[in-house]
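Practice problem: predict the structure.
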Amino acid sequence: IDWGGSLVAVDYKKPYALSRTDLSTLGHGNCDLSSAMHTSHYRIIDEGDGSGRRLVAFLNEVNWRTRTTTAVFYVFDEQGNELRRDKYDFNAAYVHDFILTENYYVLFDCPIKIDLPTVFGQYIFETACLSQSIAEDTTRKPLFRLMPRYPERMPEGQRDVVTIESNDKFCYAYHHVNGFDTEDGRLVFDTCSWDRFTLYFQDIVAPDGVKTFPRMRLSRFVIDPVAGTSEHVELDDTPCELPIVNWDWNGKPYRHMYLSTSVGREPGAAPDGTDVHGPMQALTKVSMKEEGCGEVDMCMLSSVESKKEWVPGTNKFAMEPFFVAREGGDPTDEDDGYIVCLVHDAGETPAPGAERDVSTECAILDAKSMECVCRLELPVFVPFGVHGTFTRDYCLGPEPQHMSAGN
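Answer:
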């Protein structure tokens, strides 16, 4: 995370500040951003009262003994100072990411439970880790937990935490696209939904085309905090994950999203008669119809206007995308910028006994057309992974060479 002059590396709970000159570890507690206990999932939003831009990070800790969860949201100003932390307690839940709107922190509570046979039959004998004892709970529905960011600004009767069932959609969700409040008090929540629980994303990282293969869908939920209801619409059935938007539109009505997507489909090839989808190789820009981005009724009726796919090549896999606004561009033009990603080149199938020749590229795409404008082969191999950031500061490497025009 690059924010407020601090560069921080974090996966879960304990962030470490990094040096901007050589990426060496400065340590935990070196700055406000590396002092708070949070995860690699964060959101940036422009406050509606005009007080500035905020970065919000969060931590979700589960105590399975007491069957309770504590969620903490940390709010940082543009200088990297922690302004406050908001804490909420609720029943034990698996939560991976969150949505941030002007009015709410929103968590998607996946319907899971502890599988006791695994705990007592494998975990205590050290043949399974504790996380492998987490299983689907089909006896209950997914839950949306809406936590007011500023209760004092909310109308009477809407200042408490609201828990709402997913009325018509049973699914799991890990990485969310975006969300926003509507003028009539409802909330739009866009996410990549899974039809089954897989803690280590086996459908993506270990597909066999029979039991495991990408199954995710692009889903929109419209939530009514007052009525306590939610409605679902499937925006697209191409398996998708690792979404990103232009964060100047985070928490606001928006049109464009960029996702890692599956390539290829075999209709009806799965044992249950459903389609088998190919590996997650591509990046896809999904653009909603403009009229579906304002009034809430249109949000439910909204549909995808266009999709633009970029496939890096045979045996090449695009990793998580990141949107970068074009320097000197139009700040009112949502997709005026670039998509930056790393590409894993798995190489050709090696001869028996030989090692596979793998490498990594950095690809830069035009965010409007999804055409590749630049591909850079990196001098070192970067293992396939997720979650990164982009900074406009020059942090590491030789002194930059200022090139003259035309060179």
